[in-house]
Structure formats: structure tokens, C-alpha cells
Amino acid sequence: MRTEALFPSADGVASSRLTVATIVVTRPAGREHALVEALRRAGHEAVHIPLVAIETLGDEPVDVGAYDWVVLTSAVGARELRRRMRGTPGHVAVIGNATARAYGAVDLVAPVSTQEGLLSVLPADPGRVLFAGAEGARRLLPDALGADVVALYRTVPLVPAEWPRADLVVLASASAARAYAALGRVIPAVSIGPLTTRAAVESRIAVLAEAATPDVDGLVAAVRQALGTS
């Protein structure tokens, strides 16, 4: 059952809002459970509709022993590198606590969860660097650091057969934002971070709130903000 209060529209004008809502979680299959359960504990109806799939790009070993720094920008990339890596790099730098947890012990976590944020705290002369991430990832860090690049996975957009009646969509990546935009839906969204928000806004998706931290707790707090219940 939906409990109505005030629901802020995309232009900031208060209209009807929901304290209990139907929320679409768009994360890839197998990566949705923690967020779905957290939203349900908060009293919402959470529906999982994956909008992207993850495809890994091979099983060949990745030798990291000659690198002074390895740079990782996602939990998927961290897990894939752990699976395939040989040797031990000098240091590991990551974007986001979820990426750090997926890899294990790291040396540096970006204070702001963007490539710009990580670049701002890396040494000016980092030595030899390996950037390990998604196929087609932004080139800011690799270009600025003169890094070698290895693509470990790709994201593939999905088109769901059905779409539920819902109040809010959770977008946890720029690729999910673009896949959602391609569906032509008008349900507003919450975003996991700045790059996802940018992709959503460029695709004319109404973003009501952005997570302060790129994790489950940050997304649940963003949902509360979007619904006007925080």
C-alpha cells in the first residue's frame, strides 16, 4: 500500500510524495540483492528489472608485478582482476569503498568517487600504472597517468519484456542510465553518483537525488531524499 505525503518533482516543486513507494532496481542480475533487501526493510516494494548485463572479456592472466600502481574504478573490475591477476603490484588505488572491498587491501581510495577525485590524490609521478576496468571506460585517468589499459569486462544494455507501475528508478551506473533512457520511460530516478547523474541528465531523465556515497547505504539515503522522507 502506498502512503501519500509530498513528492518533490524534478523541477523542485513539491507535489504529492510517497513515504512508501514501488522502486525499480536496475542493477545487473546477481548484484541487486543487498539493495533490494535494504529497500524492503525500509518498507518499500522493490522490483528488480536489470537494464545491463556484465560480460567478462577472457580468462588470460594479467601480470601486475611490474606496475607501481594498479587503478580500479569498479567492484566488477576489482573482482575480475583478482580472478585473473598474477604477481603483486606496488600499490592499488580505487574509486569507491565497494571497489576496495571487492579487491581486498588497497592503498588509496578516492575521496570523491570519480576519476577526477582519484587523480587528485594520486602521486604526481606515479611510475608505471595499469588501468583495469570496463571496455570503453573514460580515458581521463589512463591519459593523465600514461597508463597501460586492460579491459576486463563490458556492459551490455538489456530491454525488459515488461515494466512495472512504479514511482522511482534506481540507476547505479551511467550505462544503466543510458539503457533506461532508451526505454522512453518518464519515471524519475535516483543516481549512485556524479557520472551516473551526468549520463541521466544528458539523456533527459529527471534525477531527484544523488547518493552521497556509491553504495547501498548511499542509495537508500538518496531514495529517502527523493521521496522527501529523510
The count of DSSP E runs of length 2 or more, i.e. the number of strands, is 15
Series of secondary-structure elements, N-terminal to C-terminal = EEEHEEEEHEEHEHEHEEHEHEH
CATH architecture of the largest domain: 3-Layer(aba) Sandwich
Question: What is the CATH class designation of the largest domain?
Answer: Alpha Beta
Descriptive terms for the model:
230 residues, alpha/beta, Rossmann fold, 2 domains, 6-stranded mixed sheet, 5-stranded parallel sheet, 8 helices, 15 strands, 30% helix, disordered N terminus
What would your notes on this structure say?
With 230 residues, this protein is α/β, with parallel strands linked by helices. It folds into two domains: 118 residues, Rossmann fold, CATH 3.40.50; 100 residues, Rossmann fold, CATH 3.40.50.10090. The protein has eight helices and 15 strands. The strands form four sheets. Strands 5-12-11-7-9-10 form a six-stranded mixed β-sheet. A five-stranded parallel β-sheet has the order 4-3-13-14-15, sandwiched between helices. Helix 5 links the parallel strand 11 and strand 12. The longest helix is centred in the last third of the chain and has 12 residues. It is elongated, with a radius of gyration of 19 Å. The protein starts with a strand and ends with a helix. The N terminus is likely disordered.
